[in-house]
Amino acid sequence: MIDFCIETPNLILRKFSEFDTKDIVHYSQQPKVAYWMADMVLNNEEKALSWISRVNKRFNSGEPFIILAIEHKIEGICIGVVGVIPKDELEDEFEIFYGISDEYQRKGYATEACKTFIQWVFENTKIKSLTAMVKPENIASKLAIEKFGFKYFDSKVIPYNGGVCKFNYYKLYNNSVK
After folding, report:
1. Would 157 be classed as within a structural domain?
2. CA-to-CA distance for 37 and 29, rounded, in angstroms?
3. Residue 142 forms part of a structural domain
4. Which pTM value belongs to this model?
5. Spatial distance between the Cα atoms of 96 and 36, rounded to a whole number of angstroms
6. Is the Cβ–Cβ distance between 100 and 33 less than 8 Å?
7. pLDDT at 31
8. Cβ neighbour number for residue 28 with a 10 Å cutoff
9. 86: CATH
10. Which residues, listed in sequence order, are joined to residue 160 by a DSSP beta bridge?
11. Torsion sign across C-alpha atoms 108, 174, 93, 156
12. CA distances from 103 to 15, 99, 118, 130 (A)
């Protein structure tokens, strides 16, 4: 079923498959991933399979609604997620998000995946800008987002994980990608 693929030197960005369920459950429950992306924790394979089905049904590079698995080329396993979706809370701006399993963090994989994905989005969709929402205390993501070229604009309080949460609000315009 994998009919969409973006390759980088170390990674493959592709649609999720049912074979990713164990990997998704594993990385979504890693302490750092679960803390920073609490709304994306999947506690068992049944929930992961249901999530994969929903994500792949909504997959649309025209809208876009694109959520991709980050596969480690050598190990052949899903180590994370990268995506861009309409952000309803922000008047349908398009938000980029990503997460890498704790044991694969600090190895450059998030940078490799996101830079390639951002370039692909701007070259292959009609999106003129991307939004990134980062919890203020998440220094690593703040630094990564800024490394990708995003600029801080404001802070916003939006619904999140059954409550509300303050986020730093960043934007990246198509013409600013290097």
Report:
1. no
2. 10
3. no
4. 0.85
5. 15
6. yes
7. 58
8. 22
9. 3.40.630.30
10. 163
11. positive
12. 22, 12, 24, 28
Q: Which letter does DSSP use for residue 40 in this model?
A: G
- How many angstroms separate the CA atoms of 69 and 130, rounded? 19
- Is residue 44 assigned to a domain? yes
Domain count, the chain: 1
CA distance 151 to 131: 9
User: Is 132 part of a structural domain of the chain?
Assistant: no
What are 71's strand-pairing partners?
12, 78
- Six-digit token string for 153: 């604009």
Lowest mean pLDDT among 45-49, 71-75, 116-120, 171-175: 45-49
Both tokens assigned to 12: 């493959």
Task: Determine the structural domain holding residue 52 and report its residue range.
Answer: 5-127
Three-class secondary structure of residue 17 per DSSP: coil
Structure tokens at 35: 């803390």
